[in-house]
Amino acid sequence: MQRPTPTQSEIQLNSDDFIVSKTGLDGRIIYGNKIFIKMSGYDEKELLYAEHSILRHPDMPKIIFKLLWDRIRNKQEIFAYVKNLTKNGSFYWVYANVTATLDINNSIRDFHSVRRKPSAKAMAVIPDLYAQLLSAERSSGIDASAKLLDKILTEKGVDYDGFVLSLQQ
């Protein structure tokens, strides 16, 4: 499937919308609620069993996804701000909570994500932060982006979780 060309057209979630999806261990979508399907612009048949990265916007720094995958593979939850790309090239921002679903043997069965509208406070900060991280990645790789994120968090005197949660309150 050809990736859409990003546009400057933004779609906004309503404050009471909740996007829910599940992916298998391979990152392929195995469930999406109606709002997930609607926001993506894809038909359900196009989304099911597609890689979740089908929605990855090129403005997203890789370091955020590395942090996300490192956490959930270690059975830890994560909150993150994500810019998604729709089928027609529009975008939408979400505040995501991603967790691993465990089976009775405490093994990871799949991954579950619940997303909602990010706060105005977050949207005043995150796009510029992500642009800085992406610039560092493009010039010097993902390690440079990780170092920059650590430097910014250290200067703010918070860890990643504290920073992200403070922006949503």
Can you put this structure into words, describing what you see?
With 169 residues, this protein is of the alpha+beta class. 39% of the residues lie in helices and 22% in strands.
Helix-strand string: EEHHHEEEHHHH
CATH architecture label name: 2-Layer Sandwich
Shape designation: globular
In angstroms, what separates the terminal alpha carbons? 38 Å
Number of strands: 5
Mean pLDDT: 96
Computed CA radius of gyration, to the nearest angstrom: 16 Å
As for the number of domains, it is 1
What is this structure, in a nutshell?
The chain is of the alpha+beta class and 169 residues long.
Give structural attributes:
169 residues; alpha+beta; Beta-Lactamase; five-stranded antiparallel β-sheet; 5 strands; 22% strand; globular
Topology:
Blueprint: E1 19-23, E2 29-32, H1 34-40, H2 44-47, H3 62-73, E3 78-85, E4 91-102, E5 108-116, H4 120-123, H5 126-140, H6 142-156, H7 160-168
Antiparallel strand pairs: 1-2, 1-5, 3-4, 4-5
